[in-house]
Amino acid sequence: MIEIDKICKRYGETVVVDNVSLAIPRGGVIGIVGPNGAGKSTLLSLTSRLIKPTSGAIRVDGLDVSKAPNRDLARRLSVMRQENHVAARLTVGDLVAFGRFPHNRGRPTREDAERVKAAIDFVGMETMADRFLDQLSGGQRQRAFVAMALAQDADYALFDEPLNNLDIHHAVSMMRLFRRMGDQPGKTVIVVLHDLNVAAAYADRVVVMQAGRVVSDGRPTEVITRTLLSDVFRVEGDVMEIDGRRVVNVAP
Ligand SMILES: Nc1ncnc2c1ncn2[C@@H]1O[C@H](COP(=O)(O)OP(=O)(O)OP(=O)(O)O)[C@@H](O)[C@H]1O
Ligand SMILES: [Mg+2]
In which band, very low, low, confident or very high, does the pLDDT at 102 lie, cut at 50, 70 and 90? Predict the structure, then answer.
């Protein structure tokens, strides 16, 4: 269980995460949606300790995120950030192998090598394992970062806009992969998405952020409504039901 307890993040006078409390039990796929600047990435960064909260506490399986040793946290929780700045002179294989670091502390075993290979295969990059990151297209690089998170094999896997730059084939394969992960016992996928139709199709639960707050939280059928479109996203659109899932249609 991830327990986000009255978390606030301020930059100077600006409140970017405003008293958010959220309980995320183990299991399933949780989509986080919301307009640009709503605080989604900040919430993920707080949860994974990339930044410190101004106030409030976050616990992962009872472990206080502000105090947990790196290794303990990294074995429970992985995060793929929205922006990744890494040394370009790193191969895909090297990058993905970093995901195993919390498990092997830099002394990879045969099992680590197998997991790295499996993660690279999962994202369809088997022919690119020896390529340097700066020799990849945007979508390929994105998939390499997802593979690193897969290799980490944490119980809670956080992904910030993992579908950026992906073509429809790779976007669908990635969401199916997240769905399979979320269906495994004890595994939880938390994923920031902009496409409401993707959130509706793959998430068990959708959390909506707006101006630093959680303004809606529930099953896609409860959350994805015309009111959400107009009040949160400022578009007028239709919400239909196709094969039991919500589908948003906004006229051109
Ligand atoms: N280091 C920072 N200093 C000051 N303001 C910041 C900083 N980082 C983020 N912000 C502000 O905090 C707010 C929330 O940013 P955040 O990146 O969490 O939004 P988001 O919901 O992820 O948006 P997007 O959909 O565009 O990725 C924004 O208004 C942003 O400008
Ligand atoms: Mg963001």
Answer: confident
Instruction: Give 160's contacts (C-beta < 8 A, 6+ positions apart).
Output: 40, 41, 44, 79, 80, 81, 82, 192
Q: Provide the whole-model pTM.
A: 0.95
Which domains are assigned to the chain?
2-216 (3.40.50.300)
Q: Give CA–CA dist 74/103, Å, rounded.
A: 9
Q: For residue 62, give the amino acid letter.
A: G
- Amino acid (1-letter code) at residue 46: L
What is the rounded distance in angstroms from the CA atom of residue 32 to the CA atom of residue 54? 22
Which amino acid, one-letter code, is at 47? T
191 Cα–ligand 1 center, Å:
17
Of all atoms in ligand 1, which is nearest to the CA of residue 82?
27
197 close to 168: Cβ distance less than 8 angstroms: no
Question: Shortest CA distance to 63 belongs to which of 71, 52, 51, 54?
Answer: 71
User: What type of residue sits at position 152?
Assistant: Q
Distance CA 28, CA 181 (A): 8
Specify which residues 77 forms β-bridges with.
156
Q: What pLDDT does residue 106 have?
A: 81
Beta bridge partners of 135: none
User: Bridge partners of 33?
Assistant: 208
Q: Which of 202, 207, 206, 160 is nearest to 181 (CA)?
A: 202
Choice among 34-48, 77-91, 143-157 with the minimum mean pLDDT = 77-91
240 or 71, which is more confident: 240
Pocket test of ligand 1: the residue of 10, 11, 208 to mutate, having most ligand atoms within 8 Å of its CB, is: 11
Predicted local confidence at residue 79, as pLDDT: 94
Question: Token pair 């509706």 is at which residue?
Answer: 200
141, 133 Cβ separation under 8 angstroms: yes
